Amino acid sequence: MVSHHGSNSHQAGESSPLLQHHGTHTLTDGIAHEGESGRSGFHPRHFFAVCWRSSSNVSKYVNVLWPAALVAVILYFATNAHIGIFVASYIAMVPAANLLGFAGQEFARKLPKVAGILIETTFGSIVEIVLFVVLIVKHKEEEGNGDEGNMIPIIQAAILGSILTNLLLCLGLCFFMGGIRQHKSNQKFHAIVSEVGNGLLLVAAFGLLIPSAFYSALKSETVQAASDKLTSGKLQHDILRISQMTSIVLIVAFFLYLVYCCTSAHSIFDEVIEADEHGDLDHEEDMKKQKLTMTECLLAITIAIALVVLLLIILVDQIEDVVEAGVPDQFLGLILLPLVEKAAEHLTAIDEAWDGVMNVALYHCLGPSIQTALFNAPLVVIVGWLIGKPMDLNFEIFMIGLLVLSILVVGNFLRDQESNWLEGALLVIVYVVIAIASFYYPDPDVATSNGIGI
């Protein structure tokens, strides 16, 4: 079990980072031995073989979906079959995101543990960042709230949906799969991983809640036009400014989190994660796998990013037609988009939980949620600010309520530093209930609990 390896196998190393000693293995230029390929340069046959193998059997099976990328591109340039294009590009995003996640993972193996996981999480978030930026660039301000061309409600739903997908679906499946494989006792994880993660999520939720709370408190006081009173236009302007300033503060909080992980608690995180990886049920098998060289890592990352950008542009171009076909804005943003752009991270985390590496799996669930709340969401607000698009953090009260309640539920499950398959199943059930509710939630032009005409 994780706790057994963490407390016994590495007791002697608790006073220093475990990466500094590995028996006969050595570190070369800061590259950990498990990340070394034993080769250099680019070898096409080896490159494609390693990329096809991917990080796990589940990830490898995802590669059979690659033909969907070719279908999406052909349909996009040769037809007007918008629904078919959306479906093909949606499916193709899974292997593309998986390639980016795998390449990021291979690159991260060549770095110290904590820095590697942070970089791996960042590469996993590239898909999300590109999605948000493409959506805000495509937003048409003049169209108005709830009309064709208004992408802001979808972006806002995707922001919260990304966090909920990680906290409920991914974490729930990790608890469930880990609990099923090792059902004789609860899975254990270290307090520093759960406490830091849950604390940051609460702070992030507070920051995201402020603009919505501000609007809710004042919307009944607005008047149509008055020189000395609060008008709807002034309230909208204030919400936008609050969102922009809050975004800057949240990004500062994210960099403080990075500094904390890489300095203040670096050795603690290193030891926890190192102990987990050596307690991996498939550790020896993973060590024997062939690795990518640094050149091949960078090439794979470049190819994956180019494919992700292309597929996301194709995907976003079809959103208006998909909404017109009957898929609600909130369901599209809250459920469908987060599912596909987080696919690679979810597969990695679930595979780690199945192998008994719960601290690393937990890190892969909480880390992306923290990055979405503290960096990706504020970043799209700032990008909108720079290009003149009124992107704010004034979420629907319904969605804010879902976020806060989900963080509280997850925090309650993390409190005892143990998990089991039942807790995982309950988290997944909560996610399914949210998906059902979001499908029936009215579009922004109808549901205006916190909507302001743009």
UniProtKB/TrEMBL annotation:
Annotated Pfam families: Na_Ca_ex
InterPro entries assigned to the protein according to its UniProt record, in alphabetical order: CaH_exchang, NaCa_Exmemb, NCX_ion-bd_dom_sf
Top-level taxon of origin: Eukaryota
UniProt keyword Lyase, yes or no: no
Coiled coil residues, start to end: none
GO biological process, one term: intracellular calcium ion homeostasis
Record key words, sorted: Ion transport, Membrane, Transmembrane, Transmembrane helix, Transport
GO cellular component, one term: endomembrane system
Membrane topology recorded in Swiss-Prot or TrEMBL: Multi-pass membrane protein
Primary location class: membrane
Subcellular location: Endomembrane system
Gene Ontology MF, one: calcium:proton antiporter activity
Residue span(s) of domain Sodium/calcium exchanger membrane region: 83-261, 299-439
TM ranges: 61-77, 83-102, 114-137, 157-178, 199-218, 238-260, 297-316, 393-414, 421-441
Family: Belongs to the Ca(2+):cation antiporter (CaCA) (TC 2.A.19) family.
Protein name per UniProt: Sodium/calcium exchanger membrane region domain-containing protein
Organism: Saxophila tyrrhenica
Record lineage: Eukaryota, Fungi, Dikarya, Ascomycota, Pezizomycotina
